[in-house]
Amino acid sequence: QEYWQDKGSDMNKLNISFYTPAKALFPVAKYAERLAEICEERHIHTMFTHTLTGIEVKGDEKHAIFRAEDGKMKRVPFDLLHVVPPMGPPPFLNLSPIANAGGWVDVDKSTLQSTKYSNIFALGDCSSVPTSKTAAAICAQAPVLVKNLLSQRRGEPLAAHYNGYTSCPLMTGKNSLLLMEFGYGGEVMETFPWDQRWDNGLRGRVHACLKTTVFPWAYWNLMLKGRWYGPSGIFEP
After folding, report:
1. Low-confidence ranges of the chain (pLDDT < 70)
2. Residue 181 contacts by C-beta under 8 Å, 6 or more apart in sequence?
3. pTM of the predicted model, to two decimals?
4. Each residue of 98-144: pLDDT tens digit?
5. What span, in angstroms and rounded, lies between the C-alpha atoms of 103 and 95?
């Protein structure tokens, strides 16, 4: 919307709809409520439990085909369509004996050790841990995996535990960002002393600065070298 506003477009002619197969805008209620407020403020029409099944283009007419939860089909005309495809594990992992029914490496969600082979550990996008697959999650998982892997080699109990921490920094404007941090069960696990649900004002600009400046620098200079631990920064938890 900011792009079209900057272009001087007539915003009354702009009709934005958000279709998702999910039942809410986000799996954590606190952040889902704020996202719903943003959609209402910006007149974004939301449709839940709708799965994109096809796209039809006939001359100048373009339609997205959705299947609703009740099985009914819906054709929606569009000028611009942004699609996020369904994602899953690669075939070599999906067909591996270390994977679960969903195709991910089946691990204990706390210790990150395989539930099938004691000498295998997994983290990040390939693992079955029930949390959002983000760089922030890997930062929290890595020290747990390393400690438990070394303990397993020494024949000691696995004492390190992963609490499901992950983060989804969502840009809501050029200088605003909703910084969502949570763990297993949707438990809110925010880093800053203020309410991170608010994406505007000074707090929103601080959040946006993290996304555009701090996180990229930390990724290339620290995370890839194993020296960045997410909320605790350079200090190993």
Report:
1. none
2. 136, 165, 166, 167, 188, 189, 190, 191, 196, 231
3. 0.88
4. 999 999 999 999 999 999 999 999 999 999 999 999 999 999 999 99
5. 7
Burial class (CB in 10 A: 0-12, 13-18, 19+), 21: middle
Using CA atoms in the order 179, 180, 182, 185, what is the torsion angle rounded to 10 degrees? Answer: 170
- Other CB atoms within a 10 A radius of the CB of residue 194 amount to 10
Q: Could you tell me whether strands 176-182 and 166-173 are parallel, antiparallel, or unpaired per DSSP bridges? A: antiparallel
Instruction: Give residues with Cβ within 8 angstroms of 144, minimum separation 6.
Output: 111, 112, 123, 160, 161, 162
Q: Are strands 50-58 and 61-68 parallel, antiparallel or unpaired?
A: antiparallel
Q: What does the pLDDT read at residue 45?
A: 96
Q: What are the pLDDT digits (tens) for 143-165? A: 999 999 999 999 999 999 999 99
* Residues 166 and 140: beta-carbon distance below 8 Å: yes
Determine the length of the chain.
Answer: 237
